[in-house]
Design brief:
248 residues; alpha/beta; two-stranded antiparallel ribbon; globular
Length: 248
């Protein structure tokens, strides 16, 4: 469970100022489950799917989704980008159970960022390490390249995921732009949302109902996690109107 916010007032101030409306992880997942139940999504008839960063500190999100939705198909990559592509996503959705003539899945796709107890954006103190490191380190590496003025656009098959992260971010930046880590994480969230909606467009609506949920996973002090919700798209012929957006 997240540490009580008043134990870390600088963290809470940074969270409320920079990512207002963020919810504790358990609250976010519980509210999502309650809202989706109105559309027929339940643990017994729904597959969970999760695209978050490979970082070990993002594992609590996967554990939370599994707790609410049962067995979960993993789509993790550096930065939380949807690098498994069309084939990987369609493989995952094909595992959704067939119940009452419909197949359902809930797909979570989120980049992540850390805020320390002192309110430092991007700083995380990992277990067993005495110095702060970055979250997300993959995004921070691209920012370091931008600051150096030297970007290698070539595809390195020995570092393929990071090459993809770099290209995804560069596609969303103007020439000469050097955003900070939070702005870059917001950009990653936007790209992930656009990629997800496009890739999920190949899912057959006559067979599947699904929820596609995006936001930013926020790591706080003492292993507390929050989510900054962004969008929740419902789609499929079993959804009234065939397509809806809901808010948590």
């Amino acid at each position: 469970m997240p540490t009580l916010p008043n134990a870390f007032p600088l963290f809470r101030q940074a969270l409320d100022t920079r990512l207002p409306g963020s919810l504790p992880l358990d609250d976010y997942l519980q509210q999502g489950a309650v809202r989706l139940a109105d559309y027929g999504f339940e643990d017994a008839n729904t597959l969970g799917m999760v695209a978050v960063c490979r970082d070990e500190i993002a594992s609590a999100f996967v554990t939370g989704v599994t707790r609410h939705w049962g067995k979960t198909f993993g789509c993790r990559s550096l930065g939380g980008f949807l690098l498994l592509g069309r084939s990987g996503i369609l493989t995952g959705v094909s595992h959704a159970p067939l119940v009452g003539g419909r197949r359902r899945f809930v797909f979570f796709a989120l980049p992540h960022i850390a805020i320390s107890g002192q309110g430092e954006i991007g700083a995380v103190y990992r277990e067993g390490l005495h110095e702060a490191s970055h979250a997300c380190g993959s995004l921070a590496a691209v920012l370091k390249e931008l600051a150096s003025g030297r970007i290698d656009p070539r595809t390195d098959f020995d570092d393929l995921e990071q090459c993809c992260v770099r290209q995804k971010l560069l596609s969303g930046l103007r020439y000469g732009e050097q955003p900070d880590l939070l702005a870059t994480t917001r950009l990653a969230c936007q790209i992930i949302r656009e990629d997800g909606e496009r890739l999920l467009g190949g899912v057959d609506p006559t067979v599947y109902d699904y929820a596609f949920m995006t936001g930013i996973l926020v790591h706080g002090p003492d292993d507390g996690d929050w989510v900054y919700p962004q969008s929740c798209l419902l789609a499929g012929d079993g959804i009234p109107g065939g397509r809806q957006s809901i808010e948590l």
